[in-house]
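fyi for ur records
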Amino acid sequence: MNTFKGPFRIIFEDLRLQFLIIGSITLFIYAFMVGLGYFLSVDEFSAAIFGPAYGLLAIYPFLLFTKSFRYNLAFGGTRKQFMAALYTNILLYTVVFMVVLNVVYQFNEWLVARDIHSFTLIHTGMLLESNHMFLYFWIDFIFGIFAFALGLIINTIWHYIGTVKTLYLGAVVTIVMIFWYTFGDVMQVFQWIIGNRLSFMHVLLLVALLFLGVSYFLIKEGPIERGGHQGKAEE
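which gave:
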């Protein structure tokens, strides 16, 4: 298999299909909302259409090891090639996803400004005081990368140590979070987030990059089968 082209093509074709499906669903939801506001003369209301895109980015890591990862190894690819191809494709498709979403947002604003309908879209960029188009895209991009990185680190750990140990680890993390929420100063963190929203978004980006880095090193030396790093894969 070509050093990079083969793994890239496998993931690219898989993501292209997912992109077409999710893109079609997103546009259908938007068209339905516009029709609801225009033809039925529904009073001003708001809705979000970014759910399918973020949902795919969060769920896709759980689909990787059932098909793309095994195909890559079966055709002679390496784990490093697979991860490089994966990150390149995710970067490409996340940018495309968010460009499409923001084009729809801007088009909807154009329709609202001309009183064609009163339906407005909820944008993640509304968390900030600015409504600059690039900043809206950047916030969408950060949320998209974080959604993928969170799904990837969970599935990577699951693949590396197996189901039982992952459940133990999840229980420990849950207990720690409950303890912190009960006895820690949670409100201070929330107040900082509210007062420093843009900084918080970049903290999320750094966390996402950390998750991607850890996932890379786990997969680079990881097993083919889930839980197989100890020499015995799960059935």
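The longest strand covers residues 45-47. thats all i got for now
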